[in-house]
Amino acid sequence: MLPVVHLIDEIINLLVKWFSKRRDFALKCTSTLCPNFGEKKLRRKLECASRMNVVKLNHVEYNVVDGDMDGHVHLTNNTCSCRKFQLEQLPCKHVVVVCRFLKLNIYSMASLYYTRNTWLNAYSDTIYLVQPQELWVILEDV
Ligand SMILES: [Zn+2]
Hints:
With 142 residues, this protein is an alpha+beta fold.
């Protein structure tokens, strides 16, 4: 067997292991967001949110009074003055407080990239091993 083919086989075997392991983790996951990236961060923000107050400026803008830094949340634009919401595409602590205040689903404010379904889809494809060299179809002009 060509050394390159052997190397490709090893790489494919490694990818198959990684995909299988991650697919199994995603299947066992019961949370809406990925546990390590979205869910843990959001839970920490929920704990901080209990100590903050909301001032309604109009029907889409809210000021969140925080001890460290106040946050100006605009729900239609999906922005917060702390800029973490725009950067992470995950609700910052100010947005979490506003969602609680309005009884909105916090998860609906998170990007789809953090969801378990996106995680599952990323590893849903099957990786097939390289066929034995006798079965290869090689075009004449190659
Ligand atoms: Zn914020």
